[in-house]
Amino acid sequence: xxxPDPKPRRESLRELAHLFAYVRPYRRxxxxxxxxxxxxxxxxxxxxxxxxxxxxxxxxxxPPVVIAGLRPTLDQVAVVLIASLGIxxxxxxxxxxxxxxxxxxxxxxxxxxxxxxxxxxxxxxxGEHRVGELSSRLSSDLAQIQDTLTFTVAQIIRQSMLLxxxxxxxxxxSLQLSGIMLATVPVFMLAAVVFGRKxxxxxxxxxxxxxxxxxxxxxxxxxIANVKAFGNExxxxxxxxxxxxxxxxxxxxxxxxxAALVAFIIFAIFGAIVLVLWWGGxxxxxGQLTHPQLTQFIFxxxxxxxxxxxxxxxxxxxxxxxxxxxRVRELLREPGEEIPRAEAVAARRLTGDVRFxxxxxxxxxxxxxxVLRGVSLDVRAGEKIALVGPSGAGKSTLTALLLRFxxxxxxxxxxxxxxxRELPLAAVRGNLAIVPQxxxxxxxxxxxxxxxxxxxxxxxxxxxAAERAYCHEFIARFPEGYDTLxxxxxxxxxxxxxxxxxxxxxxLRDPAxxxxxxxxxxxxxxxxxxxxxxxxxxLAGRTAFIIAHRLATVRQCxxxxxxxxxxxxxxxxxxxxxxxxSGTYRRFAELQFGVGA
Length: 597
Ligand SMILES: Nc1ncnc2c1ncn2[C@@H]1O[C@H](COP(=O)(O)OP(=O)(O)OP(=O)(O)O)[C@@H](O)[C@H]1O
Ligand SMILES: [Mg+2]
Description:
The chain is of the alpha/beta class. Helices cover 63% and strands 10% of the residues. Among the domains are: 10-333, ABC transporter type 1, transmembrane domain (ABC transporter transmembrane region fold); 438-510, P-loop containing nucleotide triphosphate hydrolases (Rossmann fold), CATH 3.40.50.300.
């Protein structure tokens, strides 16, 4: 028993219809392509008719040729034939070009829509999907859809027209012979249904397998330093090979069905031709059919045969497209977050009061693990809070909630005394900036990377931010200055330089609330001093949450919160917490900073 389709056919057809919305803006060109294609087909359809006239004009003893009341000579028919071929060629050029341009444009629009929807997804979405799988949708699924829009649609129109014209023409030539020929059609239909169903099922599976292998490539290439450092090249090779082997098994099964189908169809087509020739020959023997008529019949039969044999390809391509469409539409249907707009950000400047009220939270991807278990924290505007605690305590998670990457399960986050959920997302994130532990730079120039904090910032603002973050000096030393390319993910800069660029970026953003996930890697003392000064500038006049790993930073803070297993166990200044003889902080500080004891 075949595995049931995940969705009934009619539904996936409806999804395909939705995709045609992307063709709508170009429908004028699409209609032109259809008309050009139609006219070109008409000339094509005349071909066997004209060939038969050519033969008849050449053969003595047959009834005279009459076209549109005229009696053309052999040469004249030949000229008409060539002219019709010429017209057909020109029209084919235009229709093919137009179909392609409509298809490509529609798919570019679709790609944009899909990408926009993809990056608008909430963070939880990215916890559940792998990057490789998502980028495969943008590449292979869309390539499949593109193929349909640029090529298959034209093929469907072309082949179905040829089919109709061919059928009418053979019926007009000889009804008896048409009957013989059409008797073979059920054989073709049966083959298409039986093999087609298999091909469809296998090819969806093959696409999924291929997407899995794409995930492996994506993951290893983004983490190539890790792969090499651990000497895991061979392991990754095996992982990739295993994925490909799975793909190969499925695709070969598909290929087998498809090959069997093609072989069968070719045999059946030529078998049908032999059958028709044989029967036609008998009709000629009894004088019921002339030689040119039989030739014409055979040509039209070839049209029909060509159209019918193109059907499985078209059919399987449409099937693949239905699978791709389904996945693409699934993504397009996912509700995204609102996209921040510059006006919304500017309109609502927060002062920076933050309150967590009995916040409980679990990650949606891991609902059985409580991460925050009743965190309450009241922070006045301008206050600096150090978050310390063991790994996995929930420090980063707390800042993720502040960014509204996720919503608390129960409890609330209040910003300026208002429930954060009532503020537009843009207003929340627009007032926040983050200096992450691992600074991730984009592959562009230093200028672009700083300007990422506030796209459209003026040159003077960018420079001022760089100066205040103690970046200007090292940037000025590069021959290309602010145009220096940082390399993919910033690999051409040192850790300390990257940190300071991230601080410049945050300064340019000028947020009311700052999140700083302090780097754990130690820097040389000069770099360290520069970063501490840059940070002091950055922190001035803002609320700050600092996941601190250094004593110097902790000491700058107004309050230290110790987070353990999702609850705040101690709060106070460094001095206060050190005064508690058996406090967690004291133990932590002794271990981490080597103080006290
Ligand atoms: N995206 C996620 N999906 C599911 N669980 C997560 C996710 N991120 C973190 N966790 C889990 O939540 C818990 C808290 O993680 P969190 O990153 O907040 O710890 P942390 O205090 O920042 O630790 P560290 O000091 O090591 O950075 C951990 O048990 C972690 O496994
Ligand atoms: Mg963390």
